[in-house]
Amino acid sequence: MNCHVHIIGIGSPFGDDRFGWAAAEALRQIAAVNAAPAGLIEISILDRPGPLLLTHWQNMDCVILLDAVRSGAAPGTWHRLDAHDLAGTGAQWSSHGFGIASAIELARVLGNMPSRLLLRGMEADSVWTGHSLSPAVAAALPFFVAEIAREALVLADSAAPAAANWD
DSSP assignment of 44-113, as one string? Predict the structure, then answer.
């Protein structure tokens, strides 16, 4: 598949809810992502966009949303979902009131869905009260980011070198 990939880190500046931001910031530092042809991989950081999320994926081929998740799994657990996995789930997968699932349902009704919409999340520590990421999420972040970089490059069909430095 060859498509324009828009990676959107969603969150806020508080604790594990900043996960989407931290992941997007780390992706911006990966040489293989930066070496993709101009405009093929775009990375944005949004503060709890709610229904405005739709404007950020309008006319996009492939969108990867990065967000903290609260499903009851162990902190640091990765979640790999496609848009259809979130149908009818309400806000249970998001730490935001009007979250990703609500935005997807609104986009479906309005006919404003990207060709491919992926949610890549990490389970937040529900008892963590620090301003930085919890230890479990911080420890899992580098491996998660490397996987997202690989996925974005495959979606973009970029000619990334086989032995690229993903860290």
Answer: EEEES-GGGHHHHHTT-SEEEEEEEE-SSSPTT-EEEEEGGGGTT-TTTT-SSSS-HHHHHHHHHHHT--
Three-state SS sequence of 117-163: EEEEEEECCCCCCCCCCCHHHHHHHHHHHHHHHHHHHHHHCCCCCCC
Q: Which residue has the higher pLDDT, 68 or 87?
A: 68
Average pLDDT, the chain: 82
Residue labelled with tokens 């604790």: 15
CA 105 to chain centre: 18
Rounded CA-CA distance 39/37 in Å is 6
**Which residues lie below 8 Å from residue 139, measured CB to CB, with a gap of 6+?**
76
Are the beta carbons of 122 and 77 closer than 8 angstroms? yes
Taking residue 143's Cβ as centre, other Cβ atoms within 10 Å add up to 13
Q: How do residues 52-80 score in pLDDT, each as one tens digit?
A: 777 777 777 899 999 998 889 999 999 99
Using an 8 Å Cβ cutoff, are 122 and 140 in contact?
Answer: yes
Quote the CA–CA distance of 44 and 42 in Å, as a whole number.
7
Q: Are 144 and 24 in contact (CB under 8 A)?
A: no
